[in-house]
Amino acid sequence: MTKWLSGVIPVIAAGSLAQAGTTGDDWLTLDEEIDRLASSSAVQTPGPSIGALIRPLFIMDDGETDVAPDVSGFDLEQADIWAEGSLGNTDWRISTDLESGDAFLQDAYAIVGIAEQVGLTFGQYQNPMLHSGRLDPEQQMLIARTRISQFFDSFDQGAMVDIGAGQFGGYFSVQNGVDGVENTHSYMARLELLLNQTINVRNWAKRVSVQPPDGGMVIGVFHYEDDAASDVQFNGADFAASFNNWRLEAEVVDFDIDLPGADGSTPWDIGGQFMLNQNFDIAARYEDSDDELTDTSNMTVGLDYYPGDPSVYWSVEVDLVDSEDEDIDGEVFRVGLTVGGSRTRP
User: Fold this and answer.
1) Terminal-to-terminal C-alpha distance of the chain
2) What span, in angstroms and rounded, lies between the C-alpha atoms of 304 and 313?
3) Residues of the chain below pLDDT 70
4) Contact at 8 Å (CB) between 330 and 296?
5) Which three-class secondary structure state does DSSP give residue 74?
6) For a disulfide at 226, which of 155, 186, 270, 289, Cβ 3.0-4.6 Å?
7) Given the DSSP bridges, would you call strands 216-226 and 186-195 parallel, antiparallel or unpaired?
8) Which range marks the domain in which residue 20 is found?
9) Are 128 and 136 in contact (CB under 8 A)?
10) Which CATH number does the domain housing residue 75 bear?
């Protein structure tokens, strides 16, 4: 019995004693009114949403040396469980990753609506520096993230202000950084322009986790640094677009290293996906590490098959790695199954 009903029943009972002559039609009308109010109350205070994402894999890695021999076997790319909800003007989310056999906490944050166009994220989260890093696993073009986004794929405690104005968005984050709870921190700033779409600041976690809508484009620039390594900074830009059956993504990061004997690098990548029909899509991505030591690049091609429900699909892909380092050089073949989703969708 709801709290509202517990309070209203004594009132109804008192009314019935005062008006012993109430007709059957009156009682029917009263019952309908109670049902309507109870239904309205349930809609206004919905419970949390929960879900899971499972991505098992079969992998074959064609190694070239004794140090990196041929391997094949089964693995879990994701085994995530999550819950999220709203309390007044505050949204919350918590998620955990179980792929290693132990529970690893990922998200644990609240998003407070400070103003119509300003939100505050407080807790543990993955900062939205890269568009590719913000995509949920089931929405990536290929099974594996880009090498650049893998480098920044981590969760940390901190606070972030999220600002939106029409087609412009900004994110300004302060987190603990690589040394944890110390007197040094990491800082991230991202500015982005959304073409042919508008920004809904409330619950940025839902907004940034989806690819641009048909005809939409995102252009972003970003900066990242950590006080624990004050001589190292990261600056870059990315681009994402979706139109008709095509989807494109590109990113570049300048690793600015101001240390004796150390040179920076500017890795970049570009990828595209094309939907053949409602059951199949194909994707390809080229990545260049811009690393003078190994001169590594790789080309990945993949095919997705959707037998019915879009939240269940199979993936097959080949990753061709070309490097002067024989331990890196080789081919990787993957077969994956994706079941579920990482969050509720707006």
Assistant:
1) 31
2) 7
3) 1-46, 63-69, 197-210, 258-263, 346
4) no
5) strand
6) 186
7) antiparallel
8) 1-45
9) no
10) 2.40.160.10
